[in-house]
Design goal:
Elements (H helix, E strand, L loop, with lengths): L1 H14 L4 H15 L6 H11 L7 H14 L2 H13 L5 H17 L2 H19 L3 H11 L10 H10 L3 H7 L1 H22 L10 H27 L4 H19 L8 H31 L2 H12 L3 H18 L2 H18 L4 H15 L7 H10 L3 H24 L2 H12 L1
Helix pairs in contact: 1-2, 2-14, 3-14, 4-7, 4-13, 4-14, 5-6, 5-12, 6-7, 6-8, 6-11, 6-12, 7-8, 7-19, 8-19, 8-20, 9-17, 9-18, 10-21, 11-20, 12-13, 14-17, 15-17, 16-17, 16-18, 17-18, 18-20
Length: 429
């Protein structure tokens, strides 16, 4: 079966340590040569270029740049302080603050890596000083940072909207309840850990004056997602325009309100963002070429036939769907994983009568888990670096947190209303 050959070659090359971009291109061209398919290489090139042409993808580098601005511009510090003032008194208070800070900053950045790096540099030293083990601090940060992928400004949602044709306006609200459910599960685990370990019984409750001061300081940062999402829902902004608004808002807040950045920092932040964006866009182009091959050789049809033999009911398909996404996400970052898997699974999901909004949230939630699944994972390595902890040490503390988040993913998977109710409710107003 061509599907098994294609993915077998791809995973073998990727596991050998070949960079993702080259793994995809070698697999695509290698399959054509090995199978004698006869497709000219010019077609691969044209598919590569076509993959990065859609105007909506302009939003990707802009959102990445906005995330860089906010991560370095003092926004993360103020969000952490706001969360501490409100929730630091709970058992496991610093852990709770970490989760809430990641959730709030995720609503601003839309990026799990930016979320993990910005919040981690602030909370991990405080957690270690309070008595938390470096392993637990890193594990919690790696998991909590991925909540950003389900928040309204999620970059994977933007890519899914491009692939599926689902409105970004709808997706921006679809992930909110799943994100809050994930955060709630992690907060419960933090409170349980705080009581069990005795390292963090919480601090004194803040006074109303302290709460007002923290809210005033964090207000401009917390206002950004409301402006962006409000603009999208009102029809004032397209997704690409909303990304440009995010950049200008991030510049205004960081340079003129908080003044934690100066103009001399901007060129380096632009270089960082553009370097990341270039890598992402090259991978998007390569996955466009592979997606073309998958389409013309009817790989999706082959997989559909196989899955239909194995999964005769929707609940069985959903199990296979989750497993495949988790395995794919372990080796590939969320954006290219979304680009590779969506053309395969969307026709199958339609066959089983699934709502495309629900499918997008399920895909994103699974790819989020993959980001901190050992032995590889973007947020896992960022957290390990910030905490100066080994992967083995982190993993011991990671499994209970993963059990909590995977329970939420199963809830998202089998209760579609968790994803679809809020967009429909807002549309009905």
């Amino acid at each position: 079966m061509l599907a098994l050959t294609l993915f077998g070659i791809f995973f073998a090359i990727a596991l050998a340590g070949v960079p993702l971009l080259y793994s995809i291109l070698i697999t695509t061209t290698g399959i054509i040569a090995l199978q004698g398919l006869g497709h000219p290489l010019e077609t691969i090139f044209l598919s590569f270029i076509g993959g990065v042409e859609p105007f909506i993808l302009l939003a990707v580098p802009l959102f990445i740049f906005a995330g860089e601005l906010l991560a370095q511009g003092g926004v993360g510090r103020r969000i952490v302080e706001f969360a501490r003032v409100l929730f630091g008194w709970l058992p496991g208070g610093l852990g709770v603050v970490t989760v809430i800070s990641c959730t709030l900053f995720g609503g601003v950045s839309g990026s799990a890596i930016a979320d993990t790096a910005a919040i981690g540099s602030l909370v991990i030293p405080a957690m270690v000083a309070r008595g938390y083990s470096r392993g637990f601090a890193a594990a919690l940060l790696a998991v909590a940072g991925t909540v950003a992928l389900l928040m309204p400004l999620s970059i994977p949602f933007l890519v899914y909207a491009f692939i599926s044709g689902v409105s970004m306006r709808t997706l921006s609200m679809a992930g909110l309840l799943p994100a809050l459910a994930t955060a709630a599960a992690l907060i419960v685990m933090c409170m349980w850990h705080g009581k069990k370990s005795g390292v963090d019984n919480g601090e004194d409750r803040s006074t109303p004056a302290q709460i007002r001061a923290a809210a005033k300081d964090a207000g401009p940062a917390l206002l950004m997602p409301l402006i962006i999402v409000g603009g999208i829902w009102s029809g004032k902004f397209t997704p690409s325009e909303s990304a440009a608004v995010a950049v200008f808002y991030g510049l205004a807040v960081s340079l003129f309100y908080y003044k934690d950045l100066s103009w001399r920092h901007i060129p380096q932040l632009m270089l960082n963002a553009f370097s990341t964006s270039a890598t992402v866009m090259l991978v998007i182009g390569a996955t466009g070429a592979m997606a073309w091959l998958i389409t013309v050789e009817q790989v999706a049809v082959q997989m559909a036939e196989w899955i239909q033999l194995v999964a005769t009911e929707q609940w069985m398909f959903l199990i296979l769907f989750n497993i495949c996404l988790l395995l794919l996400g372990i080796f590939i970052e969320p954006l290219p994983a979304m680009l590779l898997s969506a053309p395969l699974f969307l026709p199958l999901a339609k066959h089983f009568g699934m709502d495309m909004v629900h499918v997008g949230v399920v895909m994103t939630a699974n790819l989020a888990i993959a980001l901190y699944t050992p032995p590889v994972g973007g947020t896992l390595f960022v957290a390990a670096k910030l905490a100066h902890a080994g992967i083995g040490e982190i993993t011991r503390h990671l499994w209970p947190l993963m059990a909590a988040t995977f329970t939420v993913v199963l809830l998202i998977t089998y209760v579609p209303a968790l994803s679809t109710w809020l967009p429909r409710f807002i549309q009905s107003l």
